[in-house]
Design goal:
Length: 223
């Protein structure tokens, strides 16, 4: 069953969290200084909650909000190149109502999936410290517990390791790779390279590769 009230409580707690001084200082500094291209934006500048279908059977877990992406827009993977690549794939594979995700309220609807991250604040250089990762982990654990998920898609090795940690411990530790699979209790975890520009611009991750992971996730969720 879906715990909609639980998800709402988690969202409230996430967006008001100030547990990590370094991350609080960084996200708020970015929101104040802004990038020239977004000078007229009112940045979100807070931790970013998960987003999607409360009845999702598939949860997609990234690393953390981008400084000028979700830290600006307030929605996971929204407003940056990684999100452009991700939501285009979700649209092609039937999870998203449109191929773009530019800002909250742009009409995007997710069906059957939930998009979240291991860390909820934008970290400097996209590198959370271990203590920051561990402080954030209970949010992810509770969020997944409030969703009727059967399949987890880890975008990148960081998310893969965090999922194995919060839903485990799993021994031996499953090895990350694009297309890797692992069982975490009743859940199936699938690995994908992160849709960062470092991977998509070099061809390490192609649209077809990401589509294949989401198609597999959809098929597994259907049983």
């Amino acid at each position: 069953m879906t715990d909609g009230d639980g998800l709402a409580r988690i969202t409230d707690e996430v967006t008001s969290c100030r547990a990590c001084p370094r991350l609080v200082a960084w996200r708020e500094r970015v929101a104040q200084d802004r990038r020239a291209a977004y000078r007229d934006w009112e940045y979100w500048g807070r931790p970013v909650p998960g987003f999607g279908d409360p009845a999702a059977a598939v949860a997609i877990v990234g690393l953390a909000p981008a400084a000028h992406g979700a830290n600006r827009t307030g929605r996971m993977f929204t407003g940056d190149r990684s999100g452009d690549f991700l939501y285009a794939a979700l649209h092609r594979t039937g999870f998203a109502s449109q191929p773009t995700s530019e800002q909250r309220g742009d009409g995007l609807i997710l069906t059957g999936c939930w998009v979240t991250a291991a860390v909820r604040c934008a970290p400097p250089q996209n590198r959370p410290h271990p203590d920051e990762r561990d402080r954030c982990a209970p949010f992810l654990q509770r969020e997944l517990g409030a969703l009727p998920v059967a399949v987890l898609v880890a975008l990148g090795g960081f998310a893969w390791d965090v999922l194995a940690r919060v839903l485990g411990p799993v021994r031996p530790k499953p090895r990350f790779g694009h297309g890797a699979t692992a069982r975490l209790g009743d859940l199936t975890m699938l690995g994908s390279y992160h849709p960062s520009q470092q991977n998509t611009f070099t061809g390490r991750l192609t649209p077809a590769m990401l589509d294949a992971v989401f198609t597999q996730a959809r098929d597994l969720a259907r049983g």
